[in-house]
């Protein structure tokens, strides 16, 4: 524990004595007795291999790495591949401690603050908050009753008793606030109304806003008009999406893919998009309804594909052969917007994500802007 706290302090994730003490006090292995790591098995199948903290000194030490540890798989997609490995999608994790430390520092809590955590998960982050603020100040919610019960047992086992509830965190905490701080360790497409209603002027909300192409962490301050205003943080990190049911993920309905229309040269390659996180975020501002996915064609060529719900798509290959070519179906304007964004981003000095502001208006509309020159992008339709 102390070694992890020292590592995070030396790396700059921990900047204060209070959070250094919390990370040095709270035992992560209590909250992550087992986890899954992705690997390719001897059959060439990508699986999640189960590890247990108590099996060996090596595994115990692995818990205290500055690494995200997947702790639960979706039971509807998980299939056992061998005695200790499964396929499937992760549904919960113990977040990278360095990311947790940075977010907690950016939350800027003070003694006496009441905090709502959305996404209890293993309970480790709630324990850190308890160590810093005391049990009575900490409230935490998660959509999964099983996760909440397990977290409650672990927290109680080391002497912590925060207020926990198994509910949809997008509805806030049952009974309401007000809270001085809200921190979410799941992603949302926009700041929920309930979070605004359960804060007071000057409260801080720290969450991952997930747009279709990319998303990022925002730190927002609420005001008396129920507006939440702030900016993307220099800290990068993504979280599993919030969901309305512990076992069900929302899937957006999309029209069938349009037939291939044409291909042409392009100055923007798949590598450009994959390499530059701030540019992907900018693309999300330009195309808030689009998705970015991997596509493999019949010849085996892997590409990055941008797609819209109306069936339009455009893709650029990730292989060296064909680099600088875009193939598209539906509207030809889709990739043109990628090129326009690339031109602007480069001409503006390739601004990082923390050069963009974010506002959630009282009526629920959201927009972002480039802080130096005020250029703005609407993320929700103006009805």
From TrEMBL:
It is found in: Cytoplasm. GO terms for cellular component: cytoplasm. InterPro entries: PCMT, SAM-dependent_MTases_sf. Keywords: Cytoplasm, Methyltransferase, S-adenosyl-L-methionine, Transferase. Its EC number is 2.1.1.77. One of its GO terms (molecular function) is protein-L-isoaspartate (D-aspartate) O-methyltransferase activity. Transmembrane segments: none annotated. Gene3D superfamilies: Vaccinia Virus protein VP39. GO terms for biological process: methylation. Belongs to the methyltransferase superfamily. L-isoaspartyl/D-aspartyl protein methyltransferase family. This is Protein-L-isoaspartate O-methyltransferase. The lineage of its organism: Bacteria, Bacillati, Actinomycetota, Actinomycetes, Kitasatosporales.
